[in-house]
UniProtKB/TrEMBL annotation:
It is an enzyme of class 2 (transferase). Residues 46-194 form the TaqI-like C-terminal specificity domain. Its EC number is 2.1.1.72. Pfam families: TaqI_C (PF12950). The lineage of its organism: Bacteria, Pseudomonadati, Campylobacterota, Epsilonproteobacteria, Campylobacterales. One of its GO terms (biological process) is methylation. InterPro entries: N4_N6_ade-DNA_methylase, TaqI_C. Keywords: Endonuclease, Hydrolase, Methyltransferase, Nuclease, Transferase. It comes from the Bacteria. This is site-specific DNA-methyltransferase (adenine-specific). It catalyses: a 2'-deoxyadenosine in DNA + S-adenosyl-L-methionine = an N(6)-methyl-2'-deoxyadenosine in DNA + S-adenosyl-L-homocysteine + H(+). The keyword ATP-binding does not apply. One of its GO terms (molecular function) is site-specific DNA-methyltransferase (adenine-specific) activity.
Length: 256
């Protein structure tokens, strides 16, 4: 199940394709070249990759599109109403190994994870630091990412907490680490000690949300904006939230 043609596959099929050519995931140019009808365009969803998903925020302008066909497209006749997409996927008939071939995506995830309410995208393997990204627009991602959608916490509060030094320290010592890389699997994610928001600590949570808003605004204006000062303020509020002592704070700050 390949999204694109890579060198190895191309060699296997006598180099009849271009390296990097999109199968289910298309660049803007590839999408335009297919001359799709309005009906066909409805099957294309905005696809996001590691380059666009950053700590705190995701670039709203996608560079790629995914042909989002679920298991109902296992039926070869299902593509009859989508002639240009059918012609495109037929070119890769021998390459597509999806469980739902010839036209269905391999293990298509439930679309409600990618749309609707604000959610947090988690990069499962991160170098240097964990990456939790707040998203409030349609954003389709591969299985390289987890998606957190919850009604228990405000998503902006949660993204501030998860990106904090305290939670990074916890993931480093209690989660999974390979060399310098964090492996953020379901188990460490589920075990992160989340604090309950009460009447007494709500003012701190609200301050975190306000700072996250400032970070998101800065990143929207300039994705490379330096928000370290704001992030440090969030770290300090998180220490307050968890009632850490100066000594504990020093251990965390020294352990980065």
């Amino acid at each position: 199940h390949y999204d694109r043609i890579n060198k190895k596959i191309n060699e296997k099929f006598s180099n009849q394709f271009f390296n990097g050519e999109g199968i289910f995931v298309l660049s803007e140019a590839e999408k335009n070249n297919l001359k799709l009808s309005q009906k066909e365009m409805k099957l294309l969803k905005p696809s996001y990759e590691t380059a666009e998903i950053m700590k705190y925020s995701t670039l709203s302008q996608n560079q790629h599109w995914i042909i989002y066909t679920d298991s109902s497209f296992k039926n070869p006749k299902s593509m009859d109403d989508y002639p240009n997409l059918k012609k495109h996927l037929d070119r890769f008939k021998e390459v597509i190994t999806s469980d739902n071939k010839p036209y269905g995506l391999h293990r298509a995830r439930d679309e409600r994870f990618f749309t609707g309410d604000p959610r947090i995208i988690v990069l499962r393997k991160c170098a240097k630091e964990p990456i939790f990204s707040y998203v409030n627009f349609d954003c389709y991602v591969s299985a390289t990412f987890y998606i957190i959608k919850t009604k228990r916490f405000d998503s902006k509060f949660l993204v501030g907490l998860l990106n904090s030094l305290l939670i990074r320290f916890w993931l480093k010592h209690r989660g999974k680490v390979q060399g310098n890389n964090y492996q953020i699997d379901k188990e460490p994610l589920m075990n992160i000690p989340l604090i309950k928001i009460t009447k007494s600590n709500k003012p701190i949570a609200d301050k975190i949300i306000a700072l996250v808003d400032k970070i998101l605004q800065a990143k929207e204006e300039n994705p490379k904006a330096n928000t370290q000062g704001l992030e440090k303020e969030i770290d300090a509020l998180v220490y307050q939230l968890y009632h850490l002592t100066d000594e504990e704070i020093k251990t965390i700050e020294d352990g980065q």
